[in-house]
């Protein structure tokens, strides 16, 4: 057993595992010989992925269908894995909204806040006692560079990811002295379903990364929290934005997005 498997195995829980970064993370964890609990809404995709990973890597894969916009979903996941020795929580599921804040659908905004904020909080709350008892393990939150600064015309999403960043940083401070690593992953533009669902052509985005590369970078930096930006382009961009007066940064972002 290598150090990674010893520290984060034998079981990893991955939410949002049916596509994108979550699927890539699940696949790369399977190559490292971790057994998996895969969580998403789309049961058919989960079952197909579970069969592939089990067959190719000889790991045990369990699927758990859940709509993480349901406030009770996190408790159901925690209950479902109560009998397993979970060493790694990958709280990856999330989605966004773009456009003028007041034009966004109110229920979608509520669902987004539940998926992006409430569910990761409750999953961590439910699994941290076990991780502390083990004295080793990890939590990986998938956030976004948009959580580093309030982003005009992405207000609800960037606010939700700012919450994730703060949660991850706080838990890093609490848990790393106890042997539990916490990393908040802040990708920039990534070639997943998410841009297309927002009507954005991924080819129009700057420095687009593949989900496989984002996942690999996250796992490589898991012990180097509290936050990690895998894209050098977006890391430099947000360092520059955060170095200038806040109002100036926000005005520039608003103009760039609105075209005004």
Automatic annotation (TrEMBL):
Pfam families in UniProt: adh_short
Gene3D superfamilies assigned: NAD(P)-binding Rossmann-like Domain
Gene Ontology MF term list: oxidoreductase activity
Alphabetic keyword roster: Oxidoreductase
Keyword Repeat on entry: no
Family to which this protein belongs: Belongs to the short-chain dehydrogenases/reductases (SDR) family.
Protein name: Short-chain dehydrogenase
Organism, scientific name: Nocardia macrotermitis
Lineage: Bacteria, Bacillati, Actinomycetota, Actinomycetes, Mycobacteriales
């Amino acid at each position: 057993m290598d150090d990674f498997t010893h520290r984060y195995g034998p079981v990893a829980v991955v939410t949002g595992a049916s596509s994108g970064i979550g699927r890539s993370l699940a696949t790369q964890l399977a190559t490292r010989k971790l057994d998996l609990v895969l969580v998403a809404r789309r049961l058919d995709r989960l079952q197909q992925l579970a069969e592939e990973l089990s067959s190719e890597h000889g790991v045990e894969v369990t699927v758990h269908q859940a709509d993480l916009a349901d406030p009770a979903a996190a408790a159901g996941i925690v209950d479902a894995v109560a009998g397993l020795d979970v060493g790694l929580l990958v709280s990856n599921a999330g989605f966004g909204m773009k456009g003028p804040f007041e034009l966004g659908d109110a229920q979608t905004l509520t669902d987004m806040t539940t998926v992006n904020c409430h569910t990761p909080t409750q999953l961590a709350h439910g699994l941290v006692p076990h991780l502390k008892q083990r004295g080793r393990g990890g939590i990986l939150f998938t956030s976004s560079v948009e959580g580093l600064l309030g982003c005009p015309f992405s207000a609800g999403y960037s606010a939700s990811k700012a919450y994730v960043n703060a949660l991850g940083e706080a838990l890093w401070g609490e848990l790393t002295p106890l042997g539990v690593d916490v990393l908040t992953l802040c990708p920039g533009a990534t070639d997943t379903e998410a841009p297309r669902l927002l009507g954005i052509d991924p080819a129009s985005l700057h420095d687009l990364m593949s989900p496989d590369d984002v996942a690999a970078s996250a796992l490589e930096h898991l012990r180097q929290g509290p936050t990690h930006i895998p894209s050098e382009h977006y890391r430099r961009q947000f360092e520059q934005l955060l170095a200038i007066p806040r109002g100036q940064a926000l005005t520039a972002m608003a103009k760039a997005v609105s075209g005004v």
